[in-house]
Structure formats: C-alpha cells, structure tokens
Amino acid sequence: MSQSSTPREKLKKKSRAEKPEEEEEPLGGDIEDLFSGNETQEIRMSLLDWYDTNQRDLPWRKRRSESEKERRAYEVWVSEIMLQQTRVQTVLEYYKRWMLKWPTINDLAQASLEEVNEMWAGLGYYRRARFLLEGAKMVVAGKDGFPNQASSLMKVKGIGEYTAGAIASIAFNEAVPVVDGNVIRVLARLKAISANPKDRRTARNFWKLAAQLVDPSRPGDFNQSLMELGATLCSVSKPSCSSCPVSSQCRAYSLSQENRTISVTDYPTKVVKAKPRCDFCCVCVLEILNLERNQSGGRFVLVKRPEEGLLAGLWEFPSVILDKEAGLATRRNAINLYLKEAFHVQPKKTCTIVSRKELGEFVHIFTHIRRKVYVELLVVQLTGGTDALLKDQANDTLTWKCVGSDALSTMGLTSAVRKVYSMVEAHKQGSSVAPDSSNRAAISRKRRIS
C-alpha cells in the first residue's frame, strides 16, 4: 500500500483518531491478506468433496433443469426465509405443505395474507411470511421475470444480502457469497478471528472472506457446503474437528493443539445478548352464548392485530398490555374498560355474565420481550344476542370476528394464542394445563370483519 495519504485519507485518519471506540478490532491476522491462493484452492476442493458425499437430503436442494431455474430460485427463496432463526427439522414439514399449496411463485402471488399467515402459524417471526408474499407479488407484477443477480434480487421486498446471495448462487450460478451464523462460525475459526462478529466492520470483513472463497465454477454448492459444515460438524459447542474436511486449514484448531488453554469454541467471540424487557398482558377469552339458537357452545371473539409491528395482521383473543405486574382487580378493570370501549360489552347493561374464571398464567419469550400472560375465560349472554353486538359495535376501527370452536381449532394461530385456547379447552374438560412459553401482546384498532 502507498505510504502517501490523500486529503481524504488524512481526514479519515483524523476522524478515526477522534473516535477510538469505533476502531476496527484486530481479526487475528491481517484481514487484507485474506486467504492465500493455495489456502483458497484447498478449502474449495476439500469442502466440495466433503459436501458431495455428506450433504443432507433436503427437499429444497432438488436439482432442476436449466429451463426451471426460476422454479429453483423460488424454492431456495422460500426455504431460506423459513430457515431464518428456525431449525431444519422444524422447517421440513412447513416447506412441504407450503409447496403443495403454492408450488410456484405465481401461485403464491395469488394468495391472501391471511392464507399465508395460517400456513406459517407456529414458525414465528411472522413478518418474514408477509414480506415473502409481498415480494412474490412484486416479482410477478414486474416485467422482467425473476431477478437472476444478487444486486437485482436485493430490490425485492424482504430479500436482503444473505438471501439474495443464496438465491443467485444456488439457482443462477452467480459467484457471490453468503454469510449467516453458520458461515461466520466457520470463517471465524478458519482465521481465528477474535473480533466481535456483530460489529459492522467485522461483519463486512466476513463478507470479504466469504467472497474470496466462493468457487466460481460451483458457487451454489460451495456456499451450501460452507453453511452445511457450520450446521453439522462445526457446531457452536461441540465441533467435530477430527471429522472436519478443513481442519488442516483451521487456525483455531491449530492454536488449540498448540495451547490447551485455547479452544476452538472460543471462536467466534460470544456476544452478550441484551436482557429482554419484561411486560405483562391480560388476555380475556370472550365466549358469547346464544341460547335463542339452542347452541351447545358459544362463539369466541377474535381481534386482528395492526398491520404493522409485532405479530402484524394476526388474530388473537381480546387483550390488554399492562404497565406493570398487577393483581386480579386491576387486570379485570383494564379488561372491562377495553370490552366496554371496543364491543359495548357491559355486565347488567348489554350482557349477562354466565361465568368468569381465571385460568392461569404463563410466560412467552419474544426476541426482545419477556411477556407474562394472564388468562381468563369470560362467558356472557348478550341482551340483544350476537347480531346486536355485530350491529352496534362501539369501535368501528377495530377488526374482529366471532368464530366457533371448530373453526378456532383449525385456524392458523400463533403458538401463544393456541396455548391460551388449550387452557380454555382444559378448563372445559375439567383438567389443567401446565404453563410454558407462549405469546400474546397489545391491542389493535381496525374495521370489523364479518
């Protein structure tokens, strides 16, 4: 590198000197050197040979002809979105059901968000499903067909750098890298990189390393081999170094052999996760009896969450987020006020309470939230019947509907909402359900659906 500095370079140096906390952390070697030419070739050959023999048989890895590249791209896209933050074994059945219902991107583009949410129910991170649907509609509506380069794929709703690289390399044979958690772990160990992997500069350096390694003749297979190695042999806590095809090129492994105080699992650096904030939610399962129609069971009120934010567009039982942990009286007052404002449900005025029972509580963990959920079952008979409730709804900005137990059992609901309903079913059957992790959250305001 030239020793002279341009004015811009001097300005950058001055800026970095003024902000030492933003200096790039050492990467266990000169990152500009990357891998040597021989290292690159050896890693490519070793990984591809290993992958050809040991790759898992997964439905989205099905080979397709040149004329079916766009079909393959769609399959890779769906699988990669599903696999984000989710184990392969969990994704397998979801992927199969998804492809049976929407085998092509054109089929998906015709779907509604509610259909997609129902299919996605249980996978979590529901925004992924919404973006997948919006992206499919965007591609189908375009005039240029399925984008076949990473740069153009990144213009599609919900496709970031990683997903674009996966689709472009696997489906269209473009020599571009992919970097996910598995790849970061493999690269950090290969180069013994001790820098914080969450640091922006360090993250870009991982992309540089991955880009150097990509095999130009088999980019898709190479990227999958790198991810496969991280998902299987090069695991977080119990790496199988003796079986690893690139252990001879792994600096972390070499260091661990030279110094027993060093472990391969020291890389990448463990990042302390932010402690999730705690909040509290009371859920009221509102069951409406209609004795005039001789119904053996009631209908349950479901509320649709806002189209933006946590669990956007999904259905839930009426609920209220509390500022802090509260006793039974405070929780019931909050629920009573909400039911009055949203549905005109007021004991002795618009309805008769048949029964009201606390069913228990459980904790549900979101990425950044630890939510304690209190559940109650409120069974009422409306003075004017269900039709009066639908006709005279107090808040016309709320999207809600009434469903029977049969429909509720088959709807695509989040794991937390299902947990709440399982508590209701157990109560009706005279048993109890042990609390475990599930979910619920804040309240929405949208127009009613009949």
TrEMBL record:
Cellular component aspect of the GO annotation: nucleus
Cofactor note: Binds 1 [4Fe-4S] cluster.
SMART domains per the UniProt record, alphabetical: ENDO3c (SM00478)
Single GO biological process annotation from the record: base-excision repair
EC number: 3.2.2.31
Alphabetical UniProt keywords: 4Fe-4S, DNA damage, DNA repair, Glycosidase, Hydrolase, Iron, Iron-sulfur, Metal-binding, Nucleus
Subcellular location(s) per record: Nucleus
Stretches with biased composition (Acidic residues): 20-33
Reaction catalysed by this enzyme: Hydrolyzes free adenine bases from 7,8-dihydro-8-oxoguanine:adenine mismatched double-stranded DNA, leaving an apurinic site
Essential cofactor(s): [4Fe-4S] cluster
Compositional bias per record (Polar residues), positions renumbered to this chain: 431-441
Principal location class: nucleus
Residue span(s) of domain HhH-GPD: 82-232
Alphabetical list of Pfam families matching this protein: HhH-GPD (PF00730), NUDIX_4 (PF14815)
One GO molecular-function entry: 8-oxo-7,8-dihydroguanine DNA N-glycosylase activity
CDD domains the record matches: ENDO3c (cd00056), NUDIX_DNA_Glycosylase_C-MutY (cd03431)
Chain positions covered by the region annotation Disordered: 1-36, 431-450
The protein's enzyme class: hydrolase
Function text: Involved in oxidative DNA damage repair. Initiates repair of A*oxoG to C*G by removing the inappropriately paired adenine base from the DNA backbone. Possesses both adenine and 2-OH-A DNA glycosylase activities. Adenine glycosylase active on G-A mispairs.
Similarity comment text for this entry: Belongs to the Nth/MutY family.
Protein name: Adenine DNA glycosylase
